[in-house]
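Researcher: Here's a chain I'd like modeled. Treat it as a single chain, no partners, no ligands.
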Amino acid sequence: MAFDGITIANITAELRSTLLGGRIYKIAQPESDELLLTIKNNGLQYRLLLSADASLPLVYLTESNKPSPLTAPGFCMLLRKHLQNARITGISQPGLERIIHLELEHLDELGDICRKKLIVEIMGKHSNIIFCNEQDKIIDSIKHISGMVSSVREVLPGRDYFIPQTQDKQNPLQLTYVNLLEQIREKPMPVYKALYTSYTGLSPVMAQEICCRAGVDGDMPANVLEENQLNNLYSTFSDMMAQVESGNFTPTIYYDEKAPAEFASISLTLYSDKTAKTYNSVSELLEQYYAQRSMVSRIRQKSVDLRKIVQTALERNVKKYDLQIRQMQDTDKREKYKVYGELLNTYGYNVEQGAKSMEALNYYTNEMITIPLDDTLTPQENAKKYFDKYGKLKRTYEALSELTVQVKNEIEHLESILTALDIAMQEDDLVQIKEELIESGYIRRKGGTKKVKITSKPFHYISSDGFHMYVGKNNYQNDELTFKLATGNDWWFHAKKIPGSHVIVKTEGKELPDRTFEEAARLAAYYSKGREQEKVEIDYLQKKNVKKPNGAKPGFVVYYTNYSMAIDADIAGIEQVHE
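Model: Modeled as a single isolated chain. Structure tokens:
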């Protein structure tokens, strides 16, 4: 769902009802493109998240705090200088634009009242947070946009602030019937597209919703609409805008099966066939809908370097392994050369001088075979030549037998680290993965730096029957869960023959119900490389039957007796404990 103007209107109304008149208590900049404002109002404390992230711009109230860098960025320091203890005197949205204005009042060094504006633009890759004075002169912004980057508008200190008019769109809050006719009637494009390209703040989904409520096929060309269809469209559109202006919002998430498919601040009849969950607060909705996506996006960006190191090492080892396998196949001839040598020693006395081959009975198979000969050598010299070839290939085979096992184990280890990177949800998780790469020799520890403190913890779930289930986020945690946390009669789960997490179910001496077995198996499927498959085969057994070979890589175990089940990776409904 686009973060459209109607959602912004809902957020603006919510911020106005909670923050208006409040004072800014703290200003933090947890990320380069993100602000976290702590505001006190009416004896309560609120946190307002403002993000200008190009891939996921957001504005909402949150109860969560985020760690800030030790040294505050320049933009954060500037805001602290001007806005510490500033009072919020106005919160508005121009038209139905994806923009929020925070009007602020503070005292300068002389004790005089000054007014400033903090403008949040939620416009995809063009999103920004801009700090202006009372005359709309830009003091600074979280992103600087020069004329070389944008020919439409520069966002630099000292420039005048204005909303760029890149498209000739109308304000839908000023909708009239004549205006609607002018905007869409002559456009040879689908009705819903004619709507959202003609009016600000409308997303394609909301334009489809207007068509759906009006009983108009949104995919039909706008220039063939009949008068009664245009009347219905105008009436429906007007009613929706009246609903927005009156602040009559119903923030709702719509689910496709168990996955969130869409959200909106106004009920969508378009998705009447989907499961819906309505929220009292649009901030709560946005935090639920976007928090996971935002976190994954951030972690993916921060894990790029680690992922590149692992991917490069994996590709190198896969090439090495393929070459070794081909070399192993070449050694398959070694037994043949050994037989040639033995037969030449046994029957070679019958061979005439200068012969280029010899036929002999292979007493291993009772078949006649032809042995090629070097006619410049005696039969005994030919036999020695074949025994030398046999010895060389045998030594190669023995060496490769060990090397291929080592390289195969290294490939499995690296694949397990890639899976751990996919599972990682917090920066602390990446710290532990990096430590594993350092200890495995893929990253060199910087001189003088000590081993970092690990704060990442395994996932913790509780089954429907009340049993505690733990999921390792990486190989170190897998070892810790299996060989330190788990006791002999606890149950151990893992995806069969693919990288994934160890899942431990603490039994406390009780028998596990079938439902808990299934939920633990779903966790093992979800936190594995096979999570996108329809079914994943899961091995499970009691922990006492899981062993770790001497010198094995982190997370590597062996077991010989186990049960198996094929199950989906749907963990919706399994209660997670946040520690």
